[in-house]
Amino acid sequence: MQLGADHVRVRVPATSANLGPGFDALGLALGYHDTLEVRALASSEVRVDVTGEGAGEVPDDERHLVVRALRVALDHVGAPQTGLHLTCTNVIPHGRGMGSSAAAVVAGLLAARMLVADPTGLDDATILALATELEGHPDNAAPAIFGGATVAWSRDGNGPQAARLQVHPDIEPTLVVPVSRLATRAARGVLPATVPHGDAAFNAGRSALLVHALAQEPALLFDATEDRLHQEYRSGVMTSTWELVRGLREQGIAATVSGAGPTVLVLHPVSDRERVAAAVDELVGGSPRWRALQPGIDSVGAVAERL
Ligand SMILES: Nc1ncnc2c1ncn2[C@@H]1O[C@H](COP(=O)(O)OP(=O)(O)OP(=O)(O)O)[C@@H](O)[C@H]1O
Ligand SMILES: N[C@@H](CCO)C(=O)O
């Protein structure tokens, strides 16, 4: 396998996983994107220039997550490893539950797909499988790849699978993003090994309802976003997030923890945009610790092109 291009661009969306009850399964792509350009170099040099989120923090060498993913994909199809120059323009905040690590991994894998002469060995199913191996969470990787809302699951022996939902056009997300970070690993560390059967049954019902609400009946989003499997267990490591979720829900607003937190996700009808903004403003407005985003839904997923 040879390289077929030496300059590619990838645009990849932020994602919000879980959406309340769909723990480790449901995810939504957001209209909020990191963009990167990759040049294959004749030398073995690796250079990473980052503007925006992660600048001055993430490694600028082989340890960079995009570079690692790109190398895994090149190896997967037997393409030659090469020197690389990455130019990353990042807006997805790191460690906030908006899928920054899944976005970086998917971006690296798709950059490799565009660089190689024959991309057929890196089809979407392979990208999802490699992303899950690298990052661990198909509930973020699937919407980053396919756009819209997705249900991800694993089939023994066949790796991660994903189904895409058509999201009702009247639904939009509001995200309330704190300054503070929480590593996904830390948020998973406080989950119990087992949960009561009644809570598992509760979440099964709410997840099923959520798929219906997302696709067809946004009026049911408030009930459909209730969860008993993860959010309250995590409240101790994200107290202000949990307070905000509860404060919004007391006003009948469908607020949840975005992914592993600490960002708050609200799913609401488009016509409720101002009402949700006002409720957020009332609860945390004026605090330099929070900012609200209304990015819309990305219905396309990651896009890659040769330049
Ligand atoms: N664009 C990027 N470039 C390089 N490294 C990144 C990038 N985005 C994320 N990372 C790495 O991933 C880490 C964050 O991963 P983590 O899984 O904890 O949070 P998240 O992906 O933002 O949130 P969540 O998985 O809950 O949605 C960062 O600290 C950084 O090491
Ligand atoms: N479903 C995962 C998402 C992590 O991005 C979690 O909540 O831990």
UniProtKB/TrEMBL annotation:
Annotated GHMP kinase N-terminal domain residues: 65-148
EC number from the UniProt entry: 2.7.1.39
InterPro entries: GHMP_kinase_C_dom, GHMP_kinase_C_sf, GHMP_kinase_N_dom, GHMP_knse_ATP-bd_CS, Homoserine_kinase, Ribosomal_Su5_D2-typ_SF, Ribsml_uS5_D2-typ_fold_subgr
GO molecular function: ATP binding; homoserine kinase activity
Major site of localization recorded for this protein: cytoplasm
Record-listed ATP binding positions: P93, H94, G95, R96, G97, M98, G99, S100, S101, A102, A103
Any one biological process term the GO annotation gives: threonine biosynthetic process
Enzymatic class: transferase
Domain GHMP kinase C-terminal: from-to ranges: 224-282
PROSITE patterns, alphabetized: GHMP_KINASES_ATP (PS00627)
Reaction equation(s) it catalyzes: L-homoserine + ATP = O-phospho-L-homoserine + ADP + H(+)
Compartments, as annotated in UniProt: Cytoplasm
SUPFAM superfamilies in the cross-refs: GHMP Kinase, C-terminal domain, Ribosomal protein S5 domain 2-like
GO cellular component, one term: cytoplasm
Pathway assigned to this chain's UniProt record: Amino-acid biosynthesis; L-threonine biosynthesis; L-threonine from L-aspartate: step 4/5
Main function: Catalyzes the ATP-dependent phosphorylation of L-homoserine to L-homoserine phosphate.
Family: Belongs to the GHMP kinase family. Homoserine kinase subfamily.
Record-given protein name: Homoserine kinase
Organism: Sanguibacter gelidistatuariae
Species lineage: Bacteria, Bacillati, Actinomycetota, Actinomycetes, Micrococcales
